[in-house]
Design goal:
The chain is an alpha/beta fold. The chain has two domains: 37 residues, no CATH class; 82 residues, Sandwich (Immunoglobulin-like), CATH 2.60.40.420. Helix content is 16%, strand content 30%. The protein is built from two helices and eight strands, in the order H-H-E-E-E-E-E-E-E-E. The strands form two sheets. Strands 2-1-4-6 form a four-stranded mixed β-sheet, with no helix packed on it.
């Protein structure tokens, strides 16, 4: 085998052995580079706690959160909207375009809500 082929073979071998001693370089650096990214744990991600108001709809229509969670509504529409609980347990007040309002949900249950200006807009927050 000629010198260039040996160098390629050595590089391939060191690439396969990343994180082990003997391939040159700092062992801590190569070990850290071979670790999987921790941000890819979407299976354990928290449920959605933000709701966008756009095109006269709440998106998503239903969110599920843990008790004690805060849910935030943001109005992306040109028209003003609200998120008003059917049982009067919460009300974001008037949200103009770009406005946001958060509500903390302490008790489990399903909380349905609507827009006071546009009663056909309906959605819910499920608290577990």
């Amino acid at each position: 085998m000629g010198a260039p082929r040996k160098a390629i073979a050595l590089l391939v071998t060191c690439g396969a052995l990343a994180g082990t001693a003997g391939c040159g370089g700092d062992d801590e650096t190569t070990a850290a580079q071979s670790q999987p990214a921790t941000e890819s744990t979407t299976a354990t991600a928290e449920p959605t706690d933000t709701i966008d108001i756009a095109d006269f709809k709440y998106d998503p229509e239903t969110v599920t959160v843990k008790a004690g969670s805060e849910v935030t509504w943001t109005n992306s529409d040109e028209a003003a909207h609200t998120a008003t609980a059917d049982d009067s347990s919460f009300d974001t007040g008037d949200l103009d375009q770009g406005d946001s309002k958060s509500v903390t949900f302490d008790k489990p249950g399903t909380f349905t809500y609507y827009c006071r200006f546009h009663p056909f807009m309906k959605a819910s927050v499920e608290v577990r």
